[in-house]
Every structure is written in C-alpha cells, then in structure tokens.
Specification:
- This protein has one domain (about 25-175).
- Helices cover about 15% and strands about 30% of the residues.
- It has 2 helices and 8 strands.
- A 6-stranded mixed sheet has the order 1-2-8-7-3-4, with helices on one face. The protein has a two-stranded antiparallel sheet with strand order 5-6.
- A hairpin with a 2-residue loop joins strand 5 (about 120-125) and strand 6.
- It is flat and about 80 Å long.
- The model has no long low-confidence stretch (mean pLDDT about 75).
C-alpha cells in the first residue's frame, strides 16, 4: 500500500505544476513603470559637487506642478529609509528606481553593482577606500489632475521623471529645502 502511494505521488508530481510556477509564458514584472510615455521637455540642473538632475516632463504646462519637488524627495527618502540596511555598502554603485503610483502604492527597485576593482587614497599613514561610481536615483510618476496640455505627446498620461546622478544617494536629503522647486 505504501509503495502505491509513493509511486502515485511521484507520478503526479512529475506532470503537474506546483504552486506559483508558470510554464510557457513569462512571469509578469510586478514593478510597473509608465510604458507609453514620451517626454517632450527635458531640463538639466547642476547640483553640488559634480552632482546633477535631469527633469523630464511630458508637457511644458506641467512645470508648474514641480513646485512640490521637495515634497516628492521627502516621500522618496521616507520610503527608502525602510530599506537602508540593504544599501549599507558604501562603495557599490546604486541605481534606485522609485515609481509614484496614482493609487498611492509607491514602488522601489534597487540595483547595486560592486566596483570591478578597489581604489584607495593614502595620506601619510592613513588609507581610505574610494567610491568610484555615482549613484542614480530615478523618481517617476503620473501628475495628478494635470492642466490642459499644450504640447502633450502621450496617449493617456501626463508623466514626470527626475534622474538624480549623485556621489551618494543620501545626498538627496540636502535638496529637500525647496531649492529644486521652480520660482
């Protein structure tokens, strides 16, 4: 009796899919960025110490909506603080994608890349490990209640994105004082 049970379990497990297995099609990516965007306006802003930000807008009228850029950064910093333990290695180059969903579910994707080698600086008898790659933080989302578009090229959404290129992603904290907001 026991042999029949074991043989039938073996036979059934070979032919059936287990829970959470997908065969014959690709598993969908749970991280959904806006797919049908075309940015019509791009602005580059130099920040401190060889850091900069690229701001993409789908329509020029959306520039007035950037008056809360510091609030968007504060929202990002609040959410990324929950993942700081995953970002502790000071020499990895980090790419952080942050999508502000219109339903209030913000999504975070983190890629870290170890340097191909190590760089050091030696001063007298002290030695310090140098970080050789900048961090990239991309904050993207849909503008809620957008004004009537003038140059809109997108099929359905009014989108924005900030691409921060920073020596350390923690430097975003110093840009939450309102300096990024247009006057």
């Amino acid at each position: 009796m026991m042999k029949k049970l074991i043989v039938s379990m073996l036979f059934l497990s070979i032919t059936g899919n287990l829970f959470a297995q997908v065969f014959g099609k690709q598993v969908p990516n749970p991280f959904t960025m806006v797919e049908d965007y075309t940015y019509n306006r791009t602005f580059y802003v130099a920040l401190d110490k060889n850091e900069w930000v690229k701001i993409d807008l789908s329509d020029i009228t959306d520039i007035d909506r950037l008056t809360n850029a510091d609030s968007i950064l504060k929202l990002f910093l609040r959410d990324i603080q929950l993942l700081n333990d995953s970002l502790e290695n000071p020499v990895t180059g980090k790419k952080i994608d942050y999508y502000i969903d219109s339903t209030g579910r913000n999504q975070i994707r983190i890629h870290q890349q170890n340097p191909l080698g190590n760089s050091f600086i030696v001063a007298k008898e002290d030695i310090a490990l140098l970080k050789s790659q900048q961090d990239t933080v991309i904050i993207a989302g849909i503008i809620q209640n957008p004004p009537k578009a003038v140059e809109k090229m997108n099929s359905s959404n009014t989108d924005l994105s900030f691409h921060f290129y920073l020596n350390d992603y923690n430097n975003l904290e110093k840009y939450t004082n309102g300096d990024l907001n247009p006057n």
